[in-house]
Structure formats: C-alpha cells, structure tokens
Design a protein that fits this description.
Among the domains are: 36 residues; 126 residues, Topoisomerase II, domain 5, CATH 3.90.199.10; 77 residues, Gyrase A, domain 2, CATH 3.30.1360.40; 246 residues, Neuraminidase, CATH 2.120.10.90. The protein is built from 19 helices and 37 strands. Strand 6 and strand 7 form a beta hairpin.
C-alpha cells in the first residue's frame, strides 16, 4: 500500500503501520518529556512542578496556615494537570514524606504514611499541607523574569515551563520513573556536599569525576543507612551515569542485644521483622531468641534482636541477616534526565553539574537584567516626578485648566507617556517639599544599584562569583550534615546450614519401608518405636541436627536430606520417596550422619569397596548422585564408620564361612567407583558382613543363634592380605549372619556412630 496520505471527504487516510508508528512515537515522547523523566534544571517532573506552583498560587508558603490537600489537588488538576486526582495526590504525598525525600518540598499535617507502609496515608480530604522551607529555593525567583511562561492546557492562564531552582535539585532529592524504553533512578544527595562540588567545578571547570567525588563521595539517603559500596565503584558509577549501589542497616549492641536504628531507603521495618521471624519459624535461625519492635516518635526505627546466648557471634549473625533479609539492599542508579537541550540522556556527574551551573548562570543573568530593567524604569519615572516638583505651579495649572493635561505635560516638559502618567497619579499629600528629598535619595540609591548591576552583567567572573555566594548562602540555610556514613564493608555472607541450625543430639531412624524420622537424644530404643503395619526398623544413625545426613540406596546412589528438617519420632515419620527421586525399584539401605570430613567404608556383597568422605557423598540433587558401582547381581552392604584408619582393622566375612582381617589403610579413598577387592570369592559366594575393629577390641560373629567371639589376641590369626580368601571359621559358622565389634563402644555426642 502506498504511504502517501489520501484525503477522502473530511477524513485523512494513512496506512495502518504509518499511523501506528506515528501515534506510538507521539505517545512515547509525551511519556518521556511530560510525565516520567525529571528535568535537569529544577529536578522535577511536570506533576511535581505543577503541585509546587499551585501551592504557591494558593499562598501556601512555609509561614502560612496549611490548607486541605484536596484544595491543592483540585487546583492542580483543574488548572494545570488534567489527570487523575489519586496520582496527583500520591505525588504530593511523596514530596512530603521525610523518609522518601531527603529535603521534603511539602510540609504535611496529618497522616502522610510511614516507613512500614508508605501508601498508608490518609485521604486528601483529611490531610493538610503547605510548602516546606526548602521549596523556596525553587520558587523565590519565579516573578523576577527568570523563566519562560506558557499557556496551561486550556489556555486560560499561564504556568512556568521550569522553576528557577537556586540549587541542583535534580541530585538533591533524586527521583525514579519509568518511561517508554527508558527509566531513571537518581538517588538523593547531601545538599552541602553537592554545593561544595558545584563550587569546585566553578573554580575548576575542567575538574573530572574523581575531583568532584572528593566533595560528593556518595548519595545520602534520608533514612541514614550505611553506604557500603567501595569508593572506586562509586566513582565509576558517577563517571558512567549508571551502576549499582549497596546500602546496609546500621546497628549497635545494647546490653547484649542487637539494636537496628537505621534501615536502607524504602525498607519496611515490619517487613524485616517478618523475614527474620520466618527464618525462626522454619528453625533456620536458632541463634536468635526474640524479636521486638521498639520504634516510637523519638526512635522512628528501633528493632531489637535478642541472641540466644552471649556466646553467639553477633557479627556473623548480622552478616547472615544482611545476606538473607532487606537489612542490606542494592539500588540501581541510572542518571537519566531531560537536559537543557530538551533531550533525555544518561549523564555523568561532571556533565550534570556543568549543565546545571550553566543554566543557573543564565537564570541569574536574566534575574539581574530583569532587575536592571525595573531600576531603569523607576529612574525614568523619578526623573519625570522631579521635573514636576521643580515646576509644580505650572504642572498644577496644566492639570486644572487643560482638557488633555497628559499630552500638554508631555509637550511642555518633554516627558514620556509613563512619566506623565506617574505625575497624574500623584496624590496631593506627596506634593510637600520633603517628597522632593525622598525622590533624590531614591535616585541616588537606584543609580548606585544600576551601576552595580551593569558592572555585574558586564563581567562573567563577577556573575559566577555571585552564583557561588548564593550557593553558599542557600547551602547554609537549607543544608545539614551527612546522614549516611560511607563505610567500605565486605560482602555479606549467609551462614551455612550447619552454622545456622541448632546443634541438638538426634537419632535418625530409617525403616525397612523407607520411612525416616528423627528422635531427640542418643538413648533411643529405635526398635520399640511405632511403625506402620508390615514395617520395622532398618538402620539408625546418631549425631547432631546440624550435621550432614546422607542416605544410601540399593542402586548405589547417595542422597542428602537436612537432618534438622526430618519429621519427629513421635509419629511414624515421612516417606523418603516424597522428598527424593529414587527411581524404579530402589530402596534405602543405610543412613549416615556426621561431619563432612567423616570417612565411611562403602562396599558391595560382590567383595569390592572403598573409603569415602561423607561430604563427597552429599548432593543437593533430588535424584542423588552415583557413588558405588555395583557388579551384576550385587547388593549394597551397610556402611562402616572409620574413626582412625591408621589404627583400625577391617574384618570381612564371606558366606563360605571364611574371615579376613586387614588394615583399613589398604583400601583407597575415592569419591565414587567400584572400589578394590576386599576378599577372594568363588562362584556363588558373597560377603556376609563387614566390621571395623579398633586395636584391642574383640569381634563377634553371629550364625543363626550361635555367636563366636574372636578375642583381640586371636584376631592376628585371621589377618591376611587384602583380596585373599581369608581363614575358615570354626565348624558351625559356615553361614555368617552378622559381624560386629564386641563389646560395643559407647557413642559420644561428638562422635556419633552408625548403628548396625
């Protein structure tokens, strides 16, 4: 289709893609320029600018009596901003919130929201507002010929295109906004530091970002949190106009408790407490005993965290909370704004301050020129009045007797229209002799002011000196000390599960049907616990709730579960298959519990095995990981715990009634695999049992109802090389059912032992 516009009757026809493209571009430009992005000159979006201007027109200055917010919003949307009242009121509320704006522009009376819920403000029919003192820095020069005025949306009145800001408000309060295809995120800054950077740039126009950052090191949020981004990253941020900024809550210790007094910007105290409480309810934060919110009017933020004991590492606890809650927050910085050329652009710090100072210099020049015009106009009028006083009798005669006194005055005394009009407007009481002296005195003052203005306007250096003086005065009037200290901190590190979870003695019970549970303590009679019909005890493991729990399955795979999350032994537990992907026909054969460096012997009844660390068997995958390679038809044997491989011996009994004992050190340490041969087997033979024996410990062999105790002195007779056939057991023990050390050693809490 042709893209040429066709006119049919009273309608214009365009191809759809041409119309859609034009309409979307128009809409995009409107959103970018007239809604979402602030202007570099006064740092305001159109709705903010119109709210401030409307409040000025309503005479709601800092010293005035506040009026209902609905009155202000009504004037704004009725005269200047024909949009929704709720959006307009919300913009007004934000400018009044001391926790949202570093230097609020609106002084609100009533409920204007809280840090817990910034949108909990009362309806505009209830609240009252007036302008804050800082708003005068944006409005004080509005009637002094400093800015351009345009018609409002219906052409019934005028509104300013920009406000004549005496300070770089674009960086003072910052702003956020989302346009079409672009966004802005400008953080607030300290006014005095910002002015110091401007003064440095005035004195050194070629100053770079590093030089300016010496005066303006970082943003300054109203909440008083810590800025923990390294200085070199902050300089890169200001140099490129974009990046990431990290802020962290400030805290102290009081009577052993942790007291959080300052939060990052836009962080709710209630939300932080909820995040910590969620971890406590999930038993992931046993280091904390209690939480309290002691915030009040004197202490807007006071969150008290009570550690469980004085042995808790408070610094490590806070590092964990910084990593897992909103006590530490990252902020996106994007210095995108509408420049003095009317185009949106991401600017760096020297460009922003340089453009603003140039714009401010132009505003200052227009203000002085406007004042000079007023002075010259007044001097012109005073010259005419003085002429009238010097010829008062003739002036009175002309006024009394002439039909057109104004024209006669102009012709007689060579007066201008304005001078003649001023003479005609004189009151009789101003005709006294003293008035002539007042006129001459006023002339002298105005002539001196005119000379000073002309001298100031003739010299750019003098103009910039005045700009610097006014910046210093405004910084002193409206500025304050930095609230957010800049402190370089290391990255927050969350505590591991073993550090966070309370270390309680537990006994893990695994049933034959694959149900698992945990009982408190180690003196647990697992065999007498309640089991489901047809189910019974398979294996137990004693240890602590913060240690690594690994399960071995019949297909030679290992799985991991958090020990502290197991169901209580008061019930019948939960099926392992509900939390792990076991695969077809797989069943659990063993449970291991201990430190990650603890070693275990893994073996199959085919006569192969190896030593593995518990940490290498652990995995976070629901499907587990392959650890023990099984020959065809082989089965996984219960594992044996290795306490001291240099001293312990491994006893292996075969179904042929043969026993072989050799040092544990003869086996390799692997992460996975088939392992090395333990004992020589012939066709049809299998390994009947394994046992790790300590020096001087006896060995008990079980065959049906018979038991044989191999005393420590007799163990040497069964020792041999790994992989050999071993020595035959006495008659009656050709079928071995179990092999175990005797007598059983008591298990300590520090060294839990896997049951058999």
């Amino acid at each position: 289709m042709s893209e040429v516009t066709e006119v049919a009757g009273d309608h214009e026809r365009l191809p759809l893609h041409v119309f859609a493209e034009k309409a979307y571009l128009d809409y995009s430009m409107y959103v970018v320029l007239d809604r979402a992005l602030p202007h570099l000159a006064d740092g305001l979006k159109p709705v903010q600018r119109r709210i401030i201007f409307a409040m000025r027109e309503l005479a709601l200055g800092p010293n005035a009596k506040p009026k209902k917010s609905a009155r202000t919003v009504g004037d704004v949307i009725g005269k200047y901003h024909p949009h929704g009242d709720s959006a307009c009121y919300e913009a007004m509320v934000t400018m009044a919130q001391s926790f949202a704006y570093r230097y609020p522009l609106v002084d609100g009376h009533g409920n204007w929201g809280s840090p817990d819920d910034p949108k909990s403000f009362a309806a505009m029919r209830y609240t009252e507002a007036k302008l804050a003192p800082y708003a005068q820095a944006l409005l004080s020069e509005l009637d002094q010929g400093t800015v351009q005025w345009i018609d409002n949306f219906d052409g019934s009145m005028k509104e300013p295109v920009l406000l004549p800001a005496r300070l770089p408000n674009i960086l003072v309060n910052g702003t956020t906004g989302i346009a079409v295809g672009m966004a802005t995120d400008i953080p607030p800054h300290n006014l005095r530091e910002l002015v110091a950077a401007c003064l440095h740039l005035l004195a050194h126009p070629e100053a770079d970002t590093a030089a300016l950052c010496a005066h303006l090191p970082a943003p300054d949020f109203p909440t008083g949190c810590e800025i923990i981004t390294p200085p070199e990253e902050l300089r890169k941020l200001y140099d490129s106009g974009g990046g990431q900024l990290r802020a962290r809550a400030r805290w102290d210790r009081e009577d052993g408790n942790i007291v959080v007094s300052h939060l990052p910007q836009q962080v709710s105290p209630a939300r932080v407490l909820e995040q910590i409480a969620d971890q406590m309810r999930a038993k992931k934060l046993p280091l904390v005993e209690d939480l309290r919110d002691e915030s009040d009017h004197e202490n807007p933020v006071r969150l008290v965290i009570v550690p469980r004991s004085n042995r808790v590492d408070v610094d490590a606890l806070m590092a964990h909370l910084f990593a897992t809650t909103d006590l530490e927050k990252s902020y996106r910085v994007n210095l995108n704004m509408i420049g003095t050329d009317g185009r949106p652009q991401v600017k760096n710090l020297p460009t922003i301050l340089g453009e603003w100072l140039e714009w401010r210099e132009g505003v200052l020049k227009r203000r002085l020129e406007h004042r000079l015009e007023k002075v010259l106009a007044r001097l012109h009028v005073l010259e005419g009045l003085l002429t009238a006083f010097l010829n008062i009798e003739e002036v009175i005669r002309i006024i009394r007797f002439e039909d057109e006194p104004k024209q006669v005055l102009m012709d007689t005394f060579s007066l201008s229209d304005r001078q003649a009009e001023a003479i005609l407007e004189l009151k009789l009481r101003h005709l006294q002799k003293l008035e002539e002296m007042k006129i001459r005195g006023e002339q002298e003052e105005l002539n001196a002011e005119r000379a000073a203005l002309e001298q100031r306007l003739a010299s750019r250096d003098s103009l910039r000196a005045l700009l610097a003086e006014e910046l210093e005065a405004d910084a002193e009037a409206y500025g304050d000390e930095r609230r957010c200290p800049v402190v370089e901190r290391s990255a927050a590190q969350a505590l591991s599960a073993s550090e966070v979870v309370s270390a309680e003695n537990i006994t893990v019970v695994l049933s034959q049907a694959g149900w698992i549970r945990a009982a408190k303590g180690h003196s647990v009679d697992a065999g007498n616990l309640s089991y489901r019909a047809g189910d019974a005890l398979l294996r137990t493991a004693e240890g602590r709730s913060n240690q690594t729990l690994v399960l071995l399955a019949s297909q030679g795979r290992s799985y991991q579960l958090p020990a502290h999350s197991l169901a209580s032994a008061r019930g019948q537990g939960e099926p392992v298959s509900g939390r792990l992907d076991l695969g077809d026909n797989a069943r659990m054969v063993d449970v291991l519990l201990g430190e990650t460096e603890q070693r275990y012997l893994l073996a199959s009844d085919a006569g192969y095995g190896f030593v593995a660390k518990l940490g290498e068997l652990a995995t976070r995958q629901r499907a587990g990981k392959a650890c023990l390679t099984l020959p065809d038809g082989a089965k996984v044997l219960p594992s044996c715990r290795i306490r001291d491989a240099e001293q312990q011996l491994l006893a292996v009994a075969s179904t042929a009634g043969r026993l072989l004992i050799f040092p544990v050190t003869d086996l390799p340490e692997l992460a996975r695999g088939k392992g090395n041969k333990l004992i020589g087997l012939r066709d049809g033979e299998r390994v009947a049992g394994l046992a790790v024996v300590d020096p001087g410990q006896a060995l008990v062999v079980t065959s049906g109802k018979r038991t044989l105790t191999v005393k420590s002195g007799e163990i040497e007779g069964f020792q041999g090389n790994r992989g050999s056939r071993g020595k035959p057991l006495p008659r009656g023990f050709q079928r071995v059912d179990a092999l175990a050390p005797a007598p059983p050693r008591s298990t300590s809490a520090a060294e839990p032992e896997t049951g058999t």
